[in-house]
Amino acid sequence: MLIKILVVDDSASDRLIIENMLSEYCVLTACDGVEAVRMLEEHDGINLLILDLNMPNMDGFQVLEFIKENERYRKLRTIILTVYDELENEIRGLNLGAVDYIRKPIHMASLRARIDVHVALLRAEEALERQLDEQTLTFDMLFEQAPIGIAISYSCDPKHSDDFIVRINSMYEQITGRTKEELINLGWAKITHPDDVQEELDNFRKLQSGEIKNYSMEKRYIKPDGTIVWVYMTVAALAPIGESKINHICLIQDISRRKQLETECRYITEHDRWMGLYNREYLVSLLEKHARLKKNSKKALIGINLSMVQLLIANYGYQYSKNLIKKAAEALSRYCTDNCILFYMGDNYFIYYLFDYKDKKELVDLGGVIAETLESLFVTDRIGGGIGILEIEQDQDEVDIDLLMSKIMIASERSISLFGNNFQTCFYNEDLEALVKRERDILEALNIIASDDYTPNTGYYFFLQYQPILNIRTGSICGFEALARLRTK
């Protein structure tokens, strides 16, 4: 069976990467929805459509509507490309007839795995549609030699399969670690990880009711020894053949290695290699996520600025100072909870992110505990610092990450300027904001006055004030002190 794949994406680089990866198939490409429709009309036998939803001229949703309205494309299987967290677009695309989705940036191994599954499903469907006397040999060979697990069933009860499973190939048994008899007696719900059961039950019921024709998902099977195997699964409804009551086919592919690599890559991306703590990138992503999902929740940052570290590096070397900071990381990690997460921002700066906390007193108490811990830890190392606390405003759909980082840094620096290096807490409040604004305004005025094209018409200028000097013995003025004053708007 010749597999024709049409890749529709307005990104030329993404089209080229996908085309090269699927070089063993006949791959066509289009840069937008208009060209995609033209390609579909001009080329017969396109089996798979990889469709970007966000495109100029004619977007992916319009293409899906065009396909849905044309009987000619009823066998065309569409995989949509979405951006991370575009759940509504994914649901809308699936409702318009798409059978699967891939999130950008595209993980090529994942895309390849999904394409292989859908190609296997296409070939299985083709085999089932042939004449019964011609299909037996072909289907049996495909069924037993396929590199993916295949099960054909007309069971409507996932918890009590009895003898409703028609056929299960050896790869399915190998992946799940169970014999055909065990699979029939237990049913798939009992060997599925509890966290994945509800999602599959919902999809399965929609399939049985005719609401959807197929669904795909990543799920976990529990093997007899308790180990977990991740699979990418596709389930599709099948039309009855003769007197048979067969109504769906299930294909699974072992993706445990890929999930392990994803977990490792995610850890590297989200953690500082040296400290083992979450890094700035993960803090940014978490703040953005909670801005959408926890609008009414209390959220705050506690910044810890360790001073004198640069001096220690100069005197004792980088490794010595790094080991001291690592000691601080280990000590501060003891106060982490489910709603209090510690991040290492680099150099000599740590941040706690708290959410769903009770009140301001909880922040003050934690600041006090942090101060005591660091003072006792660095009592002989001449390391001090400041602790800044920032309560994040609620009911905001978006957050200005750079502004938050600037505010918490200002609060911790202000703590040092007010209390020295004694690890005292300083809240970022209206008074501190006004002070920072005043300093910013003064700096702006000085820059304007110092510029080459300065004129007094700008409203910024210096003027003199004379302050008398009094002789306290005689009570008379004995001189004046000339003071330069800055006039701002």
Globally, the shape reads elongated
Our count of domains comes out at: 4
Q: Using DSSP, what is the number of strands?
A: 17
Rg computed from alpha carbons, rounded to a whole number of angstroms = 33 Å
What's the level 1 CATH class of the largest domain? Alpha Beta
Q: Which oligomeric state applies?
A: single chain
How is the largest sheet built, in terms of strand order? 2-1-3-4-5
Distance between the termini: 78 Å
Structural class: alpha/beta
Portion of residues within helices = 40-55%
Taking all residues together, what is the mean pLDDT?
Answer: 85
What does this entry show, briefly?
This protein has 489 residues and is an alpha/beta fold. Helices cover 45% and strands 24% of the residues. It has a five-stranded parallel sheet with strand order 2-1-3-4-5, with helices on both faces.
Please name the defining characteristics of this protein:
489 residues; alpha/beta; Rossmann fold; Beta-Lactamase; Alpha-Beta Plaits; 4 domains; five-stranded parallel beta sheet; five-stranded antiparallel beta sheet; elongated
What does this structure look like?
It is built from 17 helices and 17 strands. The chain has helices spanning 12-21, 33-42, 60-68, 87-95, 108-129, 132-145, 170-176, 180-186, 188-191, 194-209, 256-270, 280-293, 309-316, 318-332, 360-377, 401-419, 430-450, and strands at 4-8, 26-30, 48-52, 77-83, 100-104, 149-153, 165-168, 214-222, 228-237, 248-254, 299-306, 340-346, 349-355, 385-392, 425-427, 461-470, 477-487. Strand 12 and strand 13 form a beta hairpin. The chain starts with a strand and ends with a strand. The model has no long low-confidence stretch (mean pLDDT 85).
